[in-house]
From TrEMBL:
<feature type="transmembrane region" description="Helical">
    <location>
        <begin position="81"/>
        <end position="101"/>
    </location>
</feature>
<dbReference type="InterPro" id="IPR056121">
    <property type="entry name" value="DUF7704"/>
</dbReference>
<feature type="transmembrane region" description="Helical">
    <location>
        <begin position="121"/>
        <end position="143"/>
    </location>
</feature>
<keyword id="KW-0812">Transmembrane</keyword>
<feature type="transmembrane region" description="Helical">
    <location>
        <begin position="55"/>
        <end position="74"/>
    </location>
</feature>
<keyword id="KW-1133">Transmembrane helix</keyword>
<protein>
    <recommendedName>
        <fullName>DUF7704 domain-containing protein</fullName>
    </recommendedName>
</protein>
<dbReference type="Pfam" id="PF24803">
    <property type="entry name" value="DUF7704"/>
</dbReference>
<feature type="transmembrane region" description="Helical">
    <location>
        <begin position="12"/>
        <end position="31"/>
    </location>
</feature>
<keyword id="KW-0472">Membrane</keyword>
<feature type="domain" description="DUF7704">
    <location>
        <begin position="6"/>
        <end position="141"/>
    </location>
</feature>
Amino acid sequence: MAPTKTIPTFYRFIFTWIDPLVSFATGYGLIFHRDAVLGMLSPLFVPRVKAYDPWLWQVAGGYWIIAIMQGGLLRYTDDLGIWKISNGAVCVMDILITLSTWEMRQPPHNWSMETMTARDWSNVVGAALFAVIRTLFLLEVGFKKQAIKKKA
């Protein structure tokens, strides 16, 4: 009997409910509430440079792709390979978001840890936490093997 793996409920909830909601809301905010979203991401983005607004549409599109993949594709299939590919790709984004915070601390930005607010820290910790959760998923932490019963 070949072993199969069931996706644990914790991961299923995070990836098919939390991810789509956060991603859709972020994309929506980047289009319709740009100043507020950019201000939440970093004080370095305030005031907003309107010349970059077309780029915000592109970033919003990326977040909506994540919302569709996580909220649609992952609900459509239980194929572990597809789940891993989708979450591996999103994990790359989580890691890059976390690394971008480090870059903002370097010259010419000089965003210091001392001036970071609780909201700033929640963005950093949130992105890092999701990267850790996705990494644990990719490593299959919390998975249980099940034997497939052969029909006679």
